[in-house]
């Protein structure tokens, strides 16, 4: 059976398929495995370019997206806008078909989640975010060319700020927030491209693209 590391640009930093560290998420994983045995139902590995300069940081796998397919943002509503934007800005090549076998490749970009396992109701608990930090931060350390982190949503914003040594209280989350870490890495933040945010017009494609345009201005 495939392990998360088999699919990852940072294999040494990935959690094992049966990572036991978050009991609530392990229970939910087992429920999903029983109900949908053909799904991925495991920690979702990073996806993208091992030489990435841009790291896109999501919250956690979506049930019918990454938790089903095994690739971040693949197969759910949020992924449609994210991958369309990556393709539009030349950060991906190929065609996005909502399937990890679609051959899509990221160029200069990588996608990570702050929490690798599916949380019930899409809401990880603070202890789960803290526990999975070891994998999230190990992934970033294994991506030494990353200079810009683009966090999608508040939880990702806080996780990414901590990972680069910026106090979360020093940079308030908002769409387009920007902060510089002591080592020069830049944290950019965006509203999450979730179905809820798009349907309520909190985020539209133009707003999302503005943040990517800013990231490209910061490309080393
Ligand atoms: S969320 Fe992270 S730390 Fe928790 S069980 Fe999954 S892989 Fe392990």
Q: What are the key terms here?
A:
single chain; about 220 residues; alpha/beta; Uracil-DNA Glycosylase, subunit E; 6-stranded mixed beta sheet; two-stranded antiparallel sheet; 7 helices; 8 strands; binds iron/sulfur cluster
Please explain how this structure is put together:
- By secondary structure, this protein is α/β, with parallel strands linked by helices.
- It has one domain (6-217): Uracil-DNA glycosylase-like domain (Uracil-DNA Glycosylase, subunit E, 3-Layer(aba) Sandwich).
- Helix content is 33%, strand content 13%.
- The strands form 2 sheets. Strands 1-5-2-6-8-7 form a 6-stranded mixed β-sheet, sandwiched between helices. A two-stranded antiparallel ribbon has the order 3-4.
- The relative contact order is 0.16.
- The mean pLDDT is 97.
- It binds iron/sulfur cluster.
- Residues 15, 19, 21-22, 25, 43, 115-117, 128, 131-132, 135 line the site of iron/sulfur cluster.
